[in-house]
Amino acid sequence: MSRREGSLEDPQADSSVSPLPHLEAKIQQTHSLARLLTKYAEQLLQEYVQHQGDPFGLPGFSPPRPPVAGLSAPAPGHAGLPVPERLRLDAAALAVLPPLLDVVRRRQAELNPRAARLLRRLEDAARQARALGAAVEAVLGALGAETGGPRAEPATAAAAAIAAAATGGVFPAKVLGLRVCSLYLEWVSRTEADLGQLAPGGPA
Amino acid sequence: MMDIFLCLKQPSRMVDSKRMRMTSNFQWILLTFLLLYLMNQVSSQKKRTPHDLKCVTNNLQVWDCSWRAPSGAGRGAAYEVCIENGSHSCYRLEKNTKIPALSPGDHEVTINFGSSISKFTLNEKDVSFIPDTPEILNLSADFSTSTLHLKWNDKGSVFPRHSNVIWEIKILRKKNMEIVKIMTHNTTLNGKDTVHHWSWTSDMPLECATHYVGIRCHIDDPKFSGHKEWSNWSLLKNISWSSDSQTKVFPQDKVILVGSDITVCCVTQEKVVLALIGSTNCPLIHLDGENVAIKIHNISASESSGTNVVFSVEDNMFGTVIFAGYPPDIPQKLNCETYDLKEIVCTWNPGRPTSLVGPRNTSYTLFESFSGKCVRYKRAEVPTNESYQLFFQMLSNQEIYNFTLNARNPLGQSESTLLVNVTEKVHPHTPTSVKVKDINSTAVTLSWHLPGNFAKIKLLCQIEINKTNSVHELRNITMKGVENSSYLIAVDKLNPYTIYTFRIRCSTKPFWKWSKWSNEKQYLTTEAIPSKGPDTWREWSSDGKNLIIYWKPLSINEANGKILSYNVSCSSDEETQSLSEILDPQHKAEIQLDKNDYIISVVAKNSVGSSPPSKIASMEIPNDDLKIEQAVGMGNGILLTWNYDPNMTCDYVIKWCNSSRSEPCLMDWKKVPSNSTETVIESDQFRPGVRYNFFLYGCRNQGYQLLRSIIGYVEELAPTVAPNFTVEDTSADSILVRWEDIPVEELRGFLRGYLFYFEKGERDTSKMRGLESGRSDIKVKNITDISQKTLRIVDLQGKTSYHLVLRAYTDGGMGPEKSMFVVTKENSVGLIIAILIPVAVAVIVGVVTSILCYRKREWIKETFYPDIPNPENCKALQFQKSVCEGSSALKTLEMNRCTPNNVEVLETRSMVPKTEDTEIISAVAERPEDSSDVEPENHVVVSYCPPVIEEEIANPGADEAGGASQVIYIDIQSMYQPQAKPEEEPENDPVGGAGYKPQMHLPVTSTVEDLAAEDDLDKTAGYRPQANVNTWNLVSPDSPRSTDSSSEIVSFGSPCSINSRQFLIPPKDEESPKSSGGGWSFTNFFQNKPND
């Protein structure tokens, strides 16, 4: 896992002589990472819910979906957008997610200091989201599409906003953390689907 | 009055029935009316004057009196009030007047209103004390704690003296002002205006609903004897939370004690449809508007992330988290000590878990009261059962510390204290850098490093000294502590050339705790000279010319180093001669010596020097009084004992060897002090079941004398083989068995006897199973005399197979079996007797019968064989009349008229006539089976018909030639003429030639003869009266012809029988094998007996 991540965190390190196979490999590699992270995000969400106590884990429990500053769920029309545009949105969301996940982890460290696995998963998720976002940016670059470039401000602002929200109360913080984990899953799986459009053998 | 009225309304109904009673009631009514009238008159009189004087006070200094004005007095009417209060005081007042408080006691008050005067008696007791209505100065709320803070002034300055005040405060909730609580608060008036504070914590968050507060008071002046009454309630003040129209749940993130109750509310504009505590539904308590609350009773401890309380509205959800836990337990096992006298480490156990984590976790502060310093515990989280620890830097020149450990969390705090002198609580670190250095072969120096500044105290260190294959030794050393942490000591009383393992731990004085053991340090001490000479023994070689010196290698403790060689020397009275130097590991030397007595010396040498010599004399002191004894050991050794012998001045030596090994007999030896009388010989070489020889030597003046010779086993086992045994002799009723000794190696113990089993049985059918199971058919002989080597088994049955088993046994058990099958001889005498007796009886009977027959031969002849048979005497006729009547089988015995015939006797030399004759005679002779049994060459068939016999012996020598002489009896009756070619007629008359030939040829017709021949074929077949009785011979029934008992032709051996041919057989024929079957014998005699 870590070796995979290590290789993907610098996706442009491997230069290829032939650009097309290189692009395919990069897409394939990024798609695989997205698929793997989708699985991890599901596990994270499950682990998160388990540690929040009832009624979070109860079937049918639908907590509110508070808005997260700087990050929204994939829009319903996302699938109708051109693939590069979709990937741009994916990369933007993945860039915002790591600080949000860090805030969630810090709050969970107070609430569940002995839930080492949950804390580790949150920490990993932040790093993995960052890696996947960079990989998507690299794919966009390889495709010749315009990338969003570094967007530190929105991420920082989102983190500050959510940090403020998370300090309001434990219950809203739990709900917000759940929302962040859900958004993480949604965006990672969205990215996986979008990359699947580009991957060899995909619908695209 | 009602009764009266009713009575008046219904007089008619009562007149008749109750006239008398009505009269008395009427009188009572009249009296009542009269009384009422008088009272009305008095009241009217009063109403015309001031009346109902009442006085109240609110400060005990002024009484406020009032009265009812007389009727007709208008507003503003003036009254003159005079009070007799020691002095006469009059006031001109309107209706109410304030008068100074009167002294206790009655006072006359006169109120003049115009012409009317009213007089009252006024006493303090009639005055009511009603304090002024209190006023709430301020009502505030702490929403976080749901606490209301109330502030008011008691206005105590208006009261002349100190009094107790009871304040009653009421809390109302919601817009409909439901009273939630009424509480009292006591204060004291001190003559000054005092502002009072009062706080109240609501069980419901203040945000949930508007809360109202009112207050009144009651002053209890002990000197005032009038009525003390409550003041009026103050104006209500309220507290409400200004909602920002956002739905919120209160309280937020509340930390409460486990088991307590809590109310949680949801302030909302939307309709709440559901409330959950964790996963449990809760009933809603409706507050103002859409606000709702739920009540949680006896809440249980929360999990780490708290207990979620959730309110659901139609399309949203709001919630809060409650953290139910415990206040911190008193820190347990608080202990403060130091490792190095530089830093104090305090450890404690948190006690009962609080169920609160993170920011709500217990925080600890360690406070030292003498120095006023404190340290805080800054660890975010620790496992539940792990002890906590804090480090406190020691202060110079302070040895005694008074620590207070304070534990605090949102639910409370607790503390634990400890007063400690750190110099007595030193738990040193683990010693490190342990080093060893030589001093000499028995002493070393040991150095180590112990972190810390122990210059002011003493250290107690413990050195563990481990030697290979030895118990470890502990040595305690007290030393003064040093500042530089380096320590050095000498360790003596060690063994040379020995590997030691050292390790160290330290504590302080006074003792508190040992440090952990240091790492082990191994060291080999240097060598020293061997401490003693080797243990020696000597044996003469088998030829008696050489003396072999044996010695044992020195133990490690004795060798004190590596033994390099041994020096062997020999000395006599005259000289000492060093013989050789033997290198280790050889431990024997052979010296050629004469029979003089020599002293042999052996010394061991290592790199440092030589051992003291070990000496032994070459010759033995003779001892003739020896016998070999037996001994059995205890499994791992053998105990040898002997009597104390004061003559033995040196030590005893026991040597032993395997008895089956060849000379010289020496496996090992052992020396025992001369004052001993027993020893246990143990050796790893001892094996169970092996016989050893032990020799006990006593030592006297350097010379050894053999005292005892013992054979023994350390443990006896069962023999491995069975004794070989053979059968020496067998008779009809006994068997003599002999066996051999079992070799010592296979005996494996002292032979205690043999067990001999025997039973009847054949090989392959009899298995000697379960010898020990006590089978009754097995006989056992236990032979305990081990010198016995034979055994005769008697009382056996003749010609019977016996199964014999032999096994040997020792005290170690039974050996294997060896078995053998033997058949006893037949009992010949009995057999002979069994044969001879019947033979003798038969002979006697025969002889007697013969004698009788001989003596009665005339009678027999007359009776049975007269010359002319008398038909009257013919038994055949008797049979016909009696016995044989009706028996067709005996019809041959019917006597027919027998016509004598001429008999022609012919003799033929060739075989041809024989053939013809065969064709002539009866069908009996022609039976195929008979013909197959009889050789044709010797087949003589005689056809006979008496009485006229012409016999012609043409050639008497023919008998000797072996040719068969044939006598043919030719019936001269024409129709029975023998045919030249008999083969042409046998079918026409198969019987005629062979069957019965009447003795007298009566003139009968051929028809009759034919008929007779046809009817009595069998009857006529046999009978031939004999012309010459001397030639009679008895025919054996088992002769070839007579064996067929089923045949209709029955031969009785009488002259009537046609089978009486034996009378005609030449004497030589009786000797031939063919005729033997027809000879006279006992067997025949017995077998014919039933036919007689």
Automatic annotation (TrEMBL), chain A:
Q: Major location, coarse class? A: secreted
The answer to whether UniProt assigns keyword Cell membrane to this entry is no
**Which GO biological process entries does UniProt record here?**
cell surface receptor signaling pathway; nervous system development
The UniProt keywords, alphabetically, are: Cytokine, Secreted
- Tell me where in or outside the cell this protein is found: Secreted
User: Which domain of life does the protein's organism represent?
Assistant: Eukaryota
Annotated spans, Disordered? 1-20
What are the recorded GO MF terms, alphabetically? Answer: cytokine activity
- CC terms in the record's Gene Ontology section: extracellular space
Family stated for the protein in its record: Belongs to the IL-6 superfamily.
Q: What does this protein do?
A: Induces cardiac myocyte hypertrophy in vitro. Binds to and activates the ILST/gp130 receptor.
Q: PANTHER family under this entry?
A: CARDIOTROPHIN-1, PTHR21353
- What name goes with this protein? Cardiotrophin-1
From TrEMBL, chain B:
InterPro entries with a match to the protein in the record: FN3_dom, FN3_sf, Hematopoietin_rcpt_Gp130_CS, Ig-like_fold, LIF-R-like_Ig-like, LIFR_D2, LIFR_N, Type-I_Cytokine_Rcpt
What is the topology of this protein in the membrane according to its UniProt annotation?
Single-pass type I membrane protein
Polar residues bias locations: 1081-1092
- What keywords sit in the KW lines? Cell membrane, Disulfide bond, Glycoprotein, Membrane, Phosphoprotein, Receptor, Repeat, Signal, Transmembrane, Transmembrane helix
**Source organism, top-level taxon:** Eukaryota
Q: Return the similarity comment.
A: Belongs to the type I cytokine receptor family. Type 2 subfamily.
* Identification of the protein by name: Leukemia inhibitory factor receptor
Classification of source organism: Eukaryota, Metazoa, Chordata, Craniata, Vertebrata
Tell me what gene encodes this. Answer: LIFR
